[in-house]
Design a protein that fits this description.
The structure holds 2 protein chains of 2 kinds. Helices cover about 0% and strands about 60% of the residues of chain A. By secondary structure, chain A is mostly beta strands. By secondary structure, chain B is mostly beta strands.
Chain lengths: ~120, ~110
């Protein structure tokens, strides 16, 4: 059974760069899509983006200029980088394994989430 | 509409059934299959239903999903206290060119 675990700093200051890593165990990181989703307190989930094992990415247009995702097949993990953070980026960040079923991308397995707080 | 709308809460008693709705628009639910997830705060969200009505691995047949027009539904029968949680729908949005999520429905089994 695949397991995902997010890791990274919990507290950032405005203008810093958020860096999170998702460690994958129980399966190879190859052959799947991998995504990042976040949820600010009291708000709905927001898709940040996803990446395929070959490095092809798809980012939310609202974050596109600040987001970079990467995959490290040697470590079996993938990462999220979000630059110039503000208080609006305070959220629980989830990593997930995704699969295409027809025309929809389903997040099949999720990590428990990492809470990130940005102070001004 | 690009957002998916769900009722904020639902409640029922053990053994009963409940249906949770998800309303979207022409760029998402009308044209793309819907997935359903359950989330207990502090834990990893769990995929329940994908492609409108396909149950994910290990999900009992008490759970079923459907989609028609710009709305989708998740039905749960024979409710148990362990079914409590936040249920949210999601699908691909052609305008966003990415997934969109519903606001979630908090299910309480009294």
């Amino acid at each position: 059974q695949v397991q995902l675990q997010e890791s990274g700093p919990e507290l950032l200051k405005a203008s810093e760069t958020l860096s999170l890593t998702c460690s994958v165990s129980g399966d190879s990181i190859g052959l799947y899509y991998w995504g990042w989703i976040r949820q600010p307190a009291g708000k709905r989930l927001e898709w940040i983006g996803h990446i395929y094992m070959n490095g092809r990415t798809n980012y939310n247009p609202s974050l596109n200029s600040r987001v970079t995702m990467s995959v490290d097949t040697s470590k079996n993990d993938f990462s999220l980088r979000l630059t110039s953070v503000t208080a609006a980026d305070t959220a629980v960040y989830f990593c997930a394994r995704a699969r295409w079923f027809g025309e929809s991308l389903s997040f099949v397995n999720w990590g428990p989430g990492a809470r990130v707080t940005v102070s001004s | 509409q690009s957002e998916l709308t769900q009722p904020p809460s639902a409640s029922t008693t053990p053994g009963q059934s409940v249906t949770i709705s998800c309303f979207g628009g022409s760029s998402n639910v009308a044209t793309n299959a819907v997935n359903w997830y359950r989330h207990l705060p502090g834990t990893a969200p769990e995929l329940l239903i994908y492609r409108d009505g396909q149950r994910a691995s290990g999900v009992p047949d008490r759970f079923s999903g459907s989609r028609s027009g710009t709305s989708a539904s998740l039905a749960i029968r024979g409710l148990q206290s362990g079914d409590e949680g936040d249920y949210f729908c999601a699908t691909w949005d052609d305008i966003l060119n990415g997934p969109v999520f519903g606001g979630g429905t908090k299910l309480t089994v009294l």
